[in-house]
């Protein structure tokens, strides 16, 4: 049946093409243009109960190559009557959920672990706009760790949300977790040039992956210090491969870690097996080493091209992170914060007990969101 239907459709398409050969091709949609929307279903009961509505959106953004690309995401509205002017907007940039297309948070009832943060923001009477990022539930591969494009994804998701006809205010605060902290900081740095019409009050970055220093200044691999870093390395290799398609896992990964790399690269948050964790826990320096200088260079290029900050922003930035972070090493983040302060970005940096996923901030980050919306005094921790 499908083959018999396809032929007439193809004939119509060919006739249409013949009839319009001299007509100019349609211009691509502008960044942030809403391409489609529908209700987002199959949510976790907690998230479904916290949201008055959940809308899945597809919209236009800008790829690492500067080309138009389709991206997906979601808009969650809090319960209650919207205030005059609409709900204030939190642009939420999620932490790493994977690099496979299936790993888009909107494919998961719990948003691959982001549901509690979204629920907390909804409880505070904020609308939440969340991008999936390019390559997750969208065309092409995921440009994992690419800072410009992830920042564009965040900014364009807000534009698309406004185009969806929802009761949203113009006021926006950026919130990012881990990988999303990198995306939110990139959005803050590029907003003035890329999306000047958006009224952004500041950013809240939680355990942000701003600087990833897998290589030292001499181009030598830095020893890894935790199983989580070994587990995430296949994602990093995928990020290298996005710009260098011929790059192979065995140019840097070895032994049992190499054996499980394809499975890890295709896994989403929560899908890593105990056996894979055991391999990572047993891994040592021999599991991660470059076979030659040519294998090291793409890693160095990724690091220099994507690490943040790149430029100062006048937007106030709150940072909350743990003093025992074994995934985004605390020393790496120390360097990023120092660089932000040196550039002149107003930063309030709080280092608290805890690791990557559980810094002891409690609800303090929600207070920061409220302070930014209210325009309350900002206390920079940068040395003066």
TrEMBL record:
The keyword Signal applies. Pfam families: LIP. One of its GO terms (molecular function) is triacylglycerol lipase activity. One of its GO terms (biological process) is lipid catabolic process. Residues 1-21 form the signal peptide. Gene3D superfamilies: alpha/beta hydrolase (3.40.50.1820). Keywords: Hydrolase, Signal. PROSITE patterns: PROKAR_LIPOPROTEIN (PS51257). The keyword S-adenosyl-L-methionine does not apply. InterPro entries: AB_hydrolase_fold, Lipase_secreted. This is Alpha/beta hydrolase. It comes from Nocardia yunnanensis.
